[in-house]
């Protein structure tokens, strides 16, 4: 697997939202400080401030690494939240003070949807750039809102083994989205009880098992409609919906338009020979 070394002298704050792939990074924070290792993979929201840091990263999966990263000057936050300094979390204070910071949390459902929209949209040219900017601003707002509530709602993190079991369960749901196992069967297959599986999905993926499955079903269906010769009924059946009306309703609730509108968008992108 590819490996990358980094040596950062002066870096702004970075917020990363990972939609796919699996990347492990090790950070050397300097003499006398403990080396930090962190895993970035689907569903992770990573916060990075690496002034004067060295380390390396390497891919742990052949899956393409899709991530949206927002780079911001820490001074910008001071201007944004001057009136709210008393209520911000310790992590946010560390960002404002430009201390080395390198940690990962699960994306919320709202973060996942905003990041996903940045990758999949019907726009081109200036409209596409404006759309990407709007997604970036929405993600930045969601990140700041998370900082304002983080200290009050932080849960005890899962151990590495349990986190891997939860992520394995997520992979199994994605692979079997057309006929997913029950929660009890899924829990049994990955070696945890149903209650821990439910709590684990909230901690690792920031959403419930049902919402996680819905997100990936809709994303897969949209990819089939936009990128392949797949009609709406075929897409519905492929992701596990026998009732096409139910599929269309959930699709519109997720993306704001019907699958038929997305299929029409795909057709409008096709340029015939001899035309501009």
How would you characterize this protein structure?
- This protein is α+β, with helices and mostly antiparallel strands and 276 residues long.
- The chain is built from eleven helices and eight strands.
- The strands form two sheets. The chain has a four-stranded antiparallel beta sheet, with no helix packed on it.
- Helix 3 packs antiparallel against helix 4, helix 5 crosses helix 6 and helix 6 packs across helix 7.
- The radius of gyration is 20 Å and the shape is globular.
- The relative contact order is 0.10.
Beta-strand percent range: 15-25%
List SSEs in N-to-C order. EEEEEEEHHEHHHHHHHHH
Trace the largest sheet across and list its strands: 1-6-3-4
CATH class identity of the largest domain? Mainly Beta
Structurally, the number of domains stands at: 2
The coarse overall form would be globular
What structural category characterises the helix and strand content? alpha+beta
Give the helix proportion (percent range). Answer: 40-55%
Report the average pLDDT across residues. Answer: 80
The counted number of beta strands is: 8
How many H/I helices? Answer: 11
Terminus-to-terminus distance: 42 Å
CATH architecture of the largest domain: Sandwich
Radius of gyration: 20 Å
